[in-house]
Design brief:
The chain starts with about 30 loop residues before the first helix and ends with a helix. It has a single domain, classed as Thiamin diphosphate (ThDP)-binding fold, Pyr/PP domains (Rossmann fold), CATH 3.40.50.970. The longest helix is centred in the last third of the chain and has 19 residues. A 7-stranded mixed sheet has the order 2-1-3-4-6-5-7, sandwiched between helices. Strand 5, helix 7 and strand 6 form a beta-alpha-beta unit. By secondary structure, it is α/β, with parallel strands linked by helices. About 35% of the residues lie in helices and about 15% in strands. The radius of gyration is 19 Å and the shape is globular.
Length: about 260
């Protein structure tokens, strides 16, 4: 009896827009997941050759090493300002910023608010892990009440440091924003939803609809002092109640594209 040789079928491989290199992120960090999702969307939409990314300062500071598209590095918090300039000079290009919560919500608060208010036609990928990752695990504007950080060793005291800032809810109220949603990277189902959101955000830009932002709840096992597995549980059980997932603004032109 002759044996049948079954040729392997490739069903999953590295996107062309994602560089074939090892990242600097800590083990278990979901920045790598976010990178892959962005790269997959760029591939599927055929945008790689005309895309310009803007890297922020933070754990994502070296993100230009991980994408096979043009990239520029912005000063801390100034990625939206640089993206504004790039998009206005190259309006036919796809422009996105990749920012963490310390960069976007703290030093970059003014930049992101005014870019959204102006309706600048670029996309923001906002990775929220509720802590300053690169600089040593200090409390961020997004840190949860009672959250232990290196600068709040007894837990965040909202009476003295205020409450977490929910950027998606704030940005959604600005007329220049076309698409503002919050998703999470803590399990496979939510990763798939995150990719769909990123696709719609880039679709908004391609259609010239104005500012779009996808907030992604992410983990930080190192600075949270947790295992990778426990950090994903933390997102589900602790972060999502404070940062509920959902669509905060979807203009009608985009709503018809949702599936």
């Amino acid at each position: 009896m002759e044996s049948t040789i079954i040729e392997p079928e490739i069903i999953y491989e590295r996107p062309e827009a994602l560089a074939d290199t090892v990242t600097h992120y800590c083990p278990g960090c979901t920045h790598g997941t976010a990178h892959r999702l962005v790269a997959e969307v760029l591939d599927e939409m055929g945008l790689q050759e005309k895309t310009v990314g803007v890297a922020s300062v933070g754990c994502s500071v070296f993100s230009y090493n991980y994408f096979e598209c043009d990239f520029v590095e912005a000063p801390h918090g100034r990625a939206p300002a640089m993206a504004t300039g790039v998009k206005r000079v190259l309006p036919d290009h796809t422009v996105f910023t990749y920012q963490g919560d310390g960069d976007l919500v703290s030093i970059g608060m003014g930049e992101i608010m005014h870019a959204a208010a102006r309706g600048e036609n670029f996309t923001v990928v906002f990775v929220n892990n509720a802590i300053y990752g690169m600089t040593g695990g200090q409390m961020a504007p997004t840190s949860l009440p009672g959250m232990v950080t290196t600068s709040s060793p007894l837990g965040r005291d909202v009476e003295t440091t205020g409450f977490p800032i929910r950027m998606s809810e704030i940005i959604a109220n600005l007329d220049g924003a076309s698409y503002v949603v919050r998703r999470s990277l803590h399990d496979a189902a939510n990763v798939r939803k995150s990719k769909k959101a990123l696709r719609l955000a880039f679709e908004a830009q391609e259609r010239g609809l104005g500012f779009s932002m996808v907030e992604l709840l992410s983990n930080c096992p190192t600075n949270w002092s947790m295992t990778a597995k426990d950090s994903l549980t933390f997102i589900k059980e602790k972060m999502i109640p404070v940062y509920p997932l959902g669509d905060f603004k979807v203009i009608p032109t985009l709503a018809e594209l949702r599936v």
